[in-house]
Amino acid sequence: MTSMLLVLSLLIHLITLTAFYQLFKQVQILKQGRSDDVTKLMETYLKEIKEENRLLETTLSQAETSVEPDTKAAADKTDSSAYTPATDHVADDSKLSLEAKVLQLYDRGLEIENIARQLNCGKTEAELIIKFNKKAHNNA
Q: Among candidates 135, 139, 123, which has minimal Cα distance to 52?
């Protein structure tokens, strides 16, 4: 009788250990899946940032080529001793910075995707401007 109970106890212990081992394996698989998801998310963000940087570089290189003739013409004008700036009428040609435009549109209730599309900037760039502004106001 005692040997029968001993065998039964051994079988129950083996089944319990097997169950614990299977649960452990499943937890490990879930942890691996979550880390893979985070890795994929970070890779996606990285690709977006690289694409935005590439677009920015293209825009800047195009702007540099179009500005060079204008700067030469301006240099020619400043070299001339007969040039006097007009002071009768000074127009306010100031423009809002990209940061100010993003924050202004965000305050109006536009979503980040629409702001980026309207201002022709990257979604991540607009999102970072908003986050940094919130952080600056929270720290102040």
A: 123
